[in-house]
Every structure is written in structure tokens, then in C-alpha cells.
């Protein structure tokens, strides 16, 4: 569709682009990234022949862009510039109709029935048909950007080039505009080339990304390849972290601000923050902890400072148990958005907790355990079960920095230790008579201060893994022994 061959470009005597070489295929959504001054806007000017290249060539469908007349080029390429705050009092439909100029013939450039049909169609596609009798200065920024997009689409281009299309738009307008552009690439065979400052939007919507740095290509490829921490940090000279989008198979980048020494006082997690009452165990960290859990509230990965293990009756049944848990937290003075909430049917007096230390590492373990719903996970597929409140709830608090790998490995280590504790306490699945591996609705939490020493792994042979394994094993066994003693098992 469009091929850039070893293009260099100068502005005055300065070399702004250096040996830029890439291809954009038909129907691709192609993003151009780079810090200010990297040559993004200059590249667009070269693609549209506003600024002729000093070396190399730009080919559109096998033809050099310099060989097109202005009118011919407008039939192949449309440009949507950055949204300007200066707006003239043109009517919306009149503005969109300007996009048909390159297709109109004769001295008077009169509008044809085909022009009218195309303009009405693109106004419907972009959602500005309801605005066609209004004036541009009466519209919001997002509405004006849609009008200018309709104007560009009215050209019926094969390639649409956009310079920061979401600049000055709020979140909803950014999404609706980019959703529309991606849709156009699918249904109208449109090829889109866009400059982005927002790396995350570019990742979500683009098929390919080009990363410019000081006029040269640093990297080109799929977003997963281009948006790696080392590449972004090298080009933008700032610390970032990469994470997966929760719904889309695309990476997202987050900046890492410099720590505020006033707000980031060093904390040490131990028994001083635990409170045990008749109806709950609560742990209140003085700072939010990076937490991964299977709680009723706060499940998944997030930052939380309140950790609640709520006692409920064995026959607890509630269709809206999440809402019930949220209301419980609110009624007892906890912010649900900052809380991990679990439920257990065992008596909270059976709780066991322990602080374990090694050089440069310490963990605080809290376990409530019973065997009322004991189950062998390897055989559970043979039976039907009713969902009942969690029986073995395990909390692991780490004084240190855990990587994502360490969180996952810590879960595995803790689970293996729990299973061993059940085996050594001779806990059986009543349905199968085989050794139980847990109970039907166990929950687990692993939280870390993200301060101090870094622990890249938490398997059973690592320092932190050894502490997790021992702490979970000991606390689970002790809690089970207390439970069995109380119920005379």
C-alpha cells in the first residue's frame, strides 16, 4: 500500500529524518511513536509530499508520491490534523462536503447526487449527521474532531493519516474515535497511519508500531515487541513498567514516579497490625500493599491496606454475597475500594499466625482452617457440591519487593505447604476416603510492602519461599489441630 524507502529529510540545514525505511500494508492501523522532536510530524509531511525527502522515496501503490498531482494525491490520502482551538463559522455539512472537492469536476465544482450520498453516509458513520445543521463553533472538541474525520472520509481515501487524533479529547471521545477508525480499516479497506503520544492507546488500537528516536527508527513491529520496558526507557528516558491489559491481548505501559520519601516511610509487617474479634480478623497496614488474592472483595492484583477475614455461619447463603460483603465493610468503617475481604465458617479463635525471619527477608503468616468441607481436588469432578463459605483462608505478608513471578510462585509454594499440612494431619475427603488437598472454597492472599530487598522468585528453594512454606505449613497444622480439638475429631 505505502512503502518508505531509505527516506531522509532536512529542514533548513538540519537532518530531521535519517534513513527511514518501512512498509504499511492495506487495512493496517499503523502507529508512529516517539518523544517530542523525534521526527514524527516531519515524517507525515514527507508521506504527503508537503516536505519532499532529501533522499529516498515514498511509494503509494507502487507509484512515487512526487508523481501525483495534488488532486490525485487527495484521492489517495486524507489527512486529519491536530484539533485546533481556532474554529471558523462553517456549517457542519458544508465542512464535510469540502472533502469531496478533489472528486468534483468542472470549473464550478458543482455537487453531484453521488457527492450528497457519500457525505450523508460518512456523517452517519461518524455520528455527526444529527449535527449537520449546526455550526462548528457551536460544537465540543470531540464533536468537531468527528466532523473533520467525516470530511477526511468523504474524500474516499485509501490511506488516512492522523496527527495525534486524540489530542485534547476526553476519554469517551478518544475511545469512540479510535473504535470508529479501527472499524473503518475493516469495512472500507482503509489504511490508517497515526501519530500517538499515548503509548497505551497506540498499543490497544494499532496492528504495527514504529518507534522513532532522533529522526531514526529505533524499532518497528507488533506492540508486544515494540513496547518493552528497555525500548521505551531508552527512547523516552523515563522509567516504565509493562503489564498486560486485563481484557485485550496488548501490552500497557505505566510510568514509575520517583518515590516521595515523606509518603514512603519504611514499614514492617508483623502482629502489631492484626486485630481479632468475634466476627472478624482484620489486618490494617499503615500503607497500601501490592496484593494478589482470591478474596470475595479485592480479588486479583491490586493495592490494598485493609484485610478482612469475616466469620459467617456454616449455613450462610446469599445470592449477592459480593454486595453483602461490601456492605459489611462499609458498616464496619472499612473502605471497600482499599480492602481485601474473605469469608470463613470456622471459629476465629482457631486462627494461627507467625512471623518468620531470615537475613534480609521476613514474612508474616495468618491462617484460619477447618475441615468441614475437605475435598480431594483430583477427584472433585466426580461429585456435585454446594458453594459454602471458605474454610482454609491463608494470608501471607512479605516485608520486601516481589516480582510478578514471585507472586505466582509464592501461591504455588503456599498451596504445596497447605496440602502437606492436610496430609500430615490425616485429613480425608469424606466422599472418596482419599487425602484432602484443601476445602471447597479456600482463599489465599499474598501481599508485599514493595520496599527493601527484591525477591525475584518465591519457589520452595528461595529464601522467601522457604519462609512461606514453613509458615503456611506450621500455621495450617496448628489451626487444624485446634479445630479438631474443639470439635472432638
Walkthrough of the structure:
The strands form six sheets. Strands 13, 14, 15, 16, 17, 18, 20 and 23 form an eight-stranded mixed sheet that branches. This protein starts with a strand and ends with a helix. The longest helix has 25 residues, at 463-487. The protein is an alpha/beta fold. The chain has helices spanning 40-47, 70-76, 92-97, 113-126, 141-154, 171-187, 199-205, 223-226, 229-236, 321-331, 404-424, 463-487; strands spanning 2-11, 14-24, 29-33, 55-60, 63-64, 77-80, 159-163, 191-195, 208-213, 216-221, 240-244, 251-255, 274-276, 280-293, 300-311, 339-344, 352-358, 361-368, 374-375, 393-399, 401-402, 438-439, 443-448, 454-455. α4 runs antiparallel to α5 (141-154) and α11 packs parallel to α12. The mean pLDDT is 90.
Structural descriptors:
eight-stranded mixed beta sheet, six-stranded mixed beta sheet, 29% helix
Topology of helices and strands:
Elements: E1 2-11, E2 14-24, E3 29-33, H1 40-47, E4 55-60, E5 63-64, H2 70-76, E6 77-80, H3 92-97, H4 113-126, H5 141-154, E7 159-163, H6 171-187, E8 191-195, H7 199-205, E9 208-213, E10 216-221, H8 223-226, H9 229-236, E11 240-244, E12 251-255, E13 274-276, E14 280-293, E15 300-311, H10 321-331, E16 339-344, E17 352-358, E18 361-368, E19 374-375, E20 393-399, E21 401-402, H11 404-424, E22 438-439, E23 443-448, E24 454-455, H12 463-487
Parallel strand pairs: 3-8, 3-9, 6-7, 7-8, 15-16, 20-23, 21-24
Antiparallel strand pairs: 1-2, 1-4, 4-5, 9-10, 11-12, 13-14, 14-15, 14-23, 17-18, 18-20, 19-22
Helix pairs in contact: 4-5, 11-12
Amino acid at each position: 500500500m505505502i512503502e518508505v524507502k531509505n527516506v531522509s529529510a532536512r529542514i533548513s540545514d538540519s537532518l530531521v529524518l535519517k534513513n527511514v525505511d518501512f512498509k504499511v500494508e492495506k487495512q493496517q492501523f499503523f502507529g508512529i511513536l516517539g518523544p517530542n522532536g523525534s521526527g514524527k510530524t516531519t515524517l507525515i509531511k514527507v508521506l504527503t509530499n508537503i516536505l519532499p525527502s532529501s533522499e529516498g522515496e515514498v511509494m503509494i501503490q507502487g507509484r512515487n508520491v512526487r508523481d501525483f498531482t495534488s488532486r490525485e494525491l487527495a484521492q489517495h490520502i486524507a489527512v486529519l490534523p491536530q484539533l485546533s482551538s481556532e474554529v471558523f463559522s462553517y456549517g457542519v455539512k458544508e465542512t464535510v462536503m469540502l472533502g469531496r472537492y478533489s472528486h468534483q469536476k468542472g470549473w464550478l465544482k458543482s455537487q453531484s447526487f453521488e457527492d450528497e450520498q457519500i457525505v450523508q453516509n460518512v456523517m452517519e458513520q461518524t455520528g455527526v449527521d444529527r449535527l449537520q445543521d449546526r455550526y462548528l463553533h457551536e460544537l465540543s472538541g470531540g464533536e468537531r474532531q468527528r466532523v473533520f474525520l467525516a470530511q477526511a472520509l468523504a474524500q474516499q481515501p485509501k490511506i488516512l493519516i492522523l496527527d495525534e487524533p486524540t489530542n485534547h479529547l476526553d476519554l469517551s471521545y478518544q475511545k469512540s474515535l479510535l473504535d470508529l477508525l479501527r472499524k473503518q480499516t475493516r469495512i472500507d479497506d482503509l489504511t490508517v497511519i497515526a501519530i500517538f503520544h499515548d503509548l497505551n492507546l497506540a498499543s490497544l488500537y494499532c496492528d504495527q508500531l514504529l518507534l522513532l528516536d532522533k529522526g531514526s527508527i529505533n524499532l518497528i513491529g507488533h506492540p508486544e515487541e515494540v513496547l518493552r520496558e528497555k525500548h521505551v526507557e531508552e527512547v523516552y528516558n523515563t522509567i516504565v513498567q509493562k503489564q498486560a491489559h486485563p481484557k485485550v491481548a496488548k501490552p500497557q505501559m505505566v510510568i514509575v514516579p520517583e518515590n516521595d520519601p515523606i509518603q514512603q516511610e519504611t514499614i514492617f509487617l508483623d502482629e502489631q497490625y492484626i486485630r481479632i474479634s468475634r466476627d472478624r480478623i482484620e489486618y490494617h497496614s499503615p500503607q497500601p500493599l501490592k496484593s494478589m488474592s482470591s478474596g470475595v472483595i479485592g480479588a486479583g492484583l491490586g493495592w490494598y491496606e485493609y484485610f478482612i477475614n469475616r466469620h459467617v455461619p456454616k449455613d450462610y447463603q446469599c445470592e449477592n454475597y459480593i454486595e453483602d460483603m461490601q456492605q459489611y465493610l462499609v458498616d464496619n468503617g472499612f473502605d471497600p475500594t482499599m480492602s481485601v475481604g474473605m469469608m470463613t465458617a470456622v471459629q476465629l479463635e482457631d486462627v494461627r499466625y507467625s512471623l518468620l525471619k531470615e537475613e534480609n527477608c521476613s514474612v508474616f503468616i495468618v491462617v484460619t482452617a477447618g475441615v468441614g468441607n475437605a475435598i480431594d481436588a483430583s477427584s472433585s469432578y466426580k461429585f456435585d457440591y454446594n458453594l459454602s463459605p471458605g474454610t482454609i483462608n491463608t494470608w501471607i505478608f512479605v516485608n520486601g519487593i516481589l516480582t510478578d513471578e514471585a507472586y505466582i510462585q509464592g501461591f504455588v509454594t503456599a498451596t504445596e505447604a497447605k496440602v502437606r499440612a492436610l496430609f500430615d494431619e490425616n485429613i480425608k475427603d469424606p466422599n472418596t476416603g482419599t487425602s484432602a488437598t484443601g476445602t471447597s472454597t479456600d482463599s489465599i492472599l499474598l501481599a508485599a510492602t514493595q520496599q527493601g530487598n527484591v525477591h525475584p522468585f518465591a519457589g520452595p528453594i528461595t529464601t522467601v519461599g522457604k519462609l512461606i512454606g514453613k509458615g503456611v505449613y506450621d500455621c495450617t497444622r496448628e489451626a487444624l489441630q485446634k479445630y479438631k480439638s474443639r470439635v472432638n475429631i
